[in-house]
Amino acid sequence: MEGGFGEILTTSGGWESVCESLRVMVSNDAFQRWFRAARWLGVEDDIGTIAVPGEIHQVWIETNYLPELTMAVTGVFEDVREVRVVVGEESGVTDHSEDGSPTPNISQARPTKAAALEGEALDRRIKAAGLNPAHTFASFVVGANSQFAHAACEAVAKKSGVGYNPLFIYGGPGLGKTHLMQAIGHELLRRQPGSRVIYLTCEKFTNEFIDAVRRGDIEKFRRRYRSSDVLLIDDVQFLAGKERSQEEFFHTFNTLLDGRNQVVLTCDRPACEIKSLEPRLISRFECGLTVEMQPPQMETRMAILKKKSHDWKVRVDESVLTFLAEKIRTNVRRLEGALMRVATYASLAGESVTVEKVEHLLKDLIREEASRQVSIDAIQKAVAEHFDVRLADMTSRRRPASIAFPRQVAMYLSRSLTKGSLMEIGEAFGGRDHGTVIHACKKVGEKIDDEPGLKESIARIESQLRR
Ligand SMILES: Nc1ncnc2c1ncn2[C@@H]1O[C@H](COP(=O)(O)OP(=O)(O)OP(=O)(O)O)[C@@H](O)[C@H]1O
């Protein structure tokens, strides 16, 4: 296909096919919210461009749906290599398509040639490494909850392969583990353009490994991963119970470390809590630096909301931001999603939003969030009642098994139902250290597998706490 945006009239059928593919790849809600109002502008220099109604759409699509969009577009338009998302109004509306909808003039949005070439080369490296363009150090808000992890990642980005190797980052969902890990990749690619940085999820690693075995080209797979300078692997808990993948991972890992190449791993729990993971892998994961990420405190949640509103160029009242930060405490992804919903509503409805409106708009999310917040106090009380021990024994130093075991169960439940860090949990149980909490969780976890009665008791306590 020849370049030029005049093609908008002739390729609208193509865009419809792209939309059909997108409907299969993303949820209906996501499609309606982000792609329904998008317009196809055409292809120029292998780059396909779509226009969206606002910055929020642009940022959200680029951050969350670029791989799906690219796949859908390249599946229909064979000469497209990359897809760019531009904002309709900002790029200047100069034309009208057949159906009367305005078509932005994207040439006005282009940077100078030299800057564009440099930017494009970096973009290509970022894309080839599998990194999300938005996950940089600059866009990460550092708080007390992430200070240590952030410092460790910066140190690794400055001096990869020596020092903290592997870097093992763990913590609950949506707390920024992937973001920080990818920021290392960005920084390295920016400073050392030739570095071979690879980011992938552990699930992808496993699937590619299985495919390589099936196709009989395991050597190619090994060459790719064992020759990287920096390997960033997300969600290693996925290895649990997968013996052959663990074996492969073990050797990949050893080769990289022996060659002083950097490995960074993320996980939803400490390595020793991953069930059915070979001890030799656990000890490898633990031989570098392990850092925990915790949920952000109120002031960090506010700082994140303010930064995101600024980056997305949306104006939301301070009172609304405070409301969101107070209500959504456990997961930055949810916090971000809530702000996005508020901002989209405000931009589409053309009115500013009040706290009352937001309360209504997000009632499901707020209710769900509240149900997640079980306190350690409530757990101690419920466990003490269930095992018929004194509440004071949850924090006492008494050691008889009839008391120590219920206490361990309460620690186990605190670990799985609250966002408390190991340190915070230990503190709540009479100032015990994090090793005691890990030991308790391990012991109860093992017993649950052997004793169906215990499993039932724990499920009962849990459902009582959730009521
Ligand atoms: N401190 C922060 N500053 C800015 N954005 C953040 C911060 N923490 C998290 N985010 C954003 O929240 C979203 C979720 O973060 P991320 O995917 O890194 O979480 P995660 O800990 O890897 O979650 P999961 O374990 O569920 O994969 C991302 O969009 C990320 O950019």
From TrEMBL:
The keyword DNA-binding applies. The keyword Phosphoprotein does not apply. Residues 100-110 have a biased composition (Polar residues). Residues 1-105 are annotated as: Domain I, interacts with DnaA modulators. HAMAP family: DnaA_bact. This is Chromosomal replication initiator protein DnaA. Plays an essential role in the initiation and regulation of chromosomal replication. ATP-DnaA binds to the origin of replication (oriC) to initiate formation of the DNA replication initiation complex once per cell cycle. Binds the DnaA box (a 9 base pair repeat at the origin) and separates the double-stranded (ds)DNA. Forms a right-handed helical filament on oriC DNA; dsDNA binds to the exterior of the filament while single-stranded (ss)DNA is stabiized in the filament's interior. Its main location: cytoplasm. It comes from the Bacteria. Oligomerizes as a right-handed, spiral filament on DNA at oriC. Residues 375-444 form the Chromosomal replication initiator DnaA C-terminal domain. Belongs to the DnaA family. Keywords: ATP-binding, Cytoplasm, DNA replication, DNA-binding, Lipid-binding, Nucleotide-binding. Pfam families: Bac_DnaA, Bac_DnaA_C, DnaA_N.
